[in-house]
Design a protein that fits this description.
- By secondary structure, the protein is mainly alpha-helical.
- The protein has a single domain, classed as Leucine-rich Repeat Variant (Alpha Horseshoe).
- It is built from 17 helices and two strands.
- Strands 1-2 form a two-stranded antiparallel sheet.
- The longest helix is centred in the middle third of the chain and has 19 residues.
- It is globular and about 55 Å long.
- The termini are far apart.
Length: about 280
């Protein structure tokens, strides 16, 4: 298996799109294997050349590269809990590109099923279950690629922020990443009608990323909390989640945790204003 892993890693550096696609398919089949096969992900994660190539692939937005990009995003999400990205030039920009609205131009309806046709989408469910420890989710649902890429991006960010403080520093330095994350906290009724499960997962994961970032200590944490709290729509979105009777207990707890963590600093506390009123609605 390790020889095949080496072949797949080498294929990522090939000039042929066909070889690169073959490489990411093989790597994904290994890192997504159950039970978890530690040697293969460890070998991939410890190869700076391979990790750099995978992360650069996240920024490939040409339609002919869609499948490579999607598989690279899935592999990155699987490995993110053991990656330090500071040495990869532009890494955060490539990861941030997964959250872009332009992904909506690449819409491709996908159906989660128990057979191989739904294998790609079940990756999202598995990652979400690992993060939330929750197992109740519809097995049959219409998904769109415009949802899958942001979901993978959010999973990657949460895992990077949990693994290493240096990753949090890189996140804090990104100019447009926080607004992209907070943009997914909106309970947009039109989007919800179009894809209820996908939108609920986007809200859930975006809140988990924000809660993690808001809990960081030191100067990096202060910077992150300030960037989060200065978003003009976030506090309203959090308040809406708390006041909406249809919001799940998990979402309400996440929103409250974010409010409380943002109040840790004097500057962000002033920006929050009526935080206590919102928190007591739980």
């Amino acid at each position: 298996m390790m020889n095949l892993t080496t072949f797949a890693m080498d294929s990522l550096e090939a000039g042929s799109t066909k070889e690169q696609l073959c490489g990411v398919r093989i790597l994904y089949s290994f890192v997504n294997r159950e039970p978890y096969d530690k040697p293969v992900p460890s070998k991939v994660a410890n190869s700076m050349k391979t990790v750099t190539t995978l992360i650069q692939m996240l920024g490939w937005t040409n339609p002919e590269d869609n499948q490579i990009r999607l598989l690279a995003a899935k592999i990155t999400a699987e490995l993110a809990s053991c990656l330090q990205i500071v040495a990869i030039p532009g890494a955060m920009n490539f990861i941030s590109s997964l959250l872009d609205n332009q992904n909506k131009q690449q819409i491709q309806e996908l159906t989660i099923q128990k057979d191989s046709a739904g294998e790609d989408n079940c990756c999202i469910i598995k990652l979400w279950r690992q993060m939330t420890k929750r197992w109740s989710i519809l097995e049959e649902e219409q998904w769109m690629e415009s949802d899958i890429l942001p979901l993978l991006g959010l999973v990657t960010l949460e895992r990077l922020a949990t693994y290493d403080l240096v990753n949090c520093v890189e996140i804090s330095r990104s100019m447009d990443l926080i607004p992209k994350i907070t943009g997914f906290t909106s309970n947009n009724s039109e989007k919800m009608r179009a894809n209820e499960t996908g939108q609920k997962l986007l809200i859930d994961l975006s809140l988990r990323v924000l809660r993690r970032l808001a809990s960081i200590g030191g100067e990096t944490g202060i910077t992150l909390r300030h960037k989060i709290s200065e978003d003009p729509f976030l506090l309203g979105n959090l308040a809406e989640i708390l006041e909406d009777s249809s919001s799940s207990q998990e979402l309400r707890e996440l929103a409250t945790d974010i409010f409380i963590k943002l109040a840790m600093d004097e500057t962000t506390n002033k920006e929050i204003g009526s935080i206590q009123d919102h928190s007591t609605t739980l």
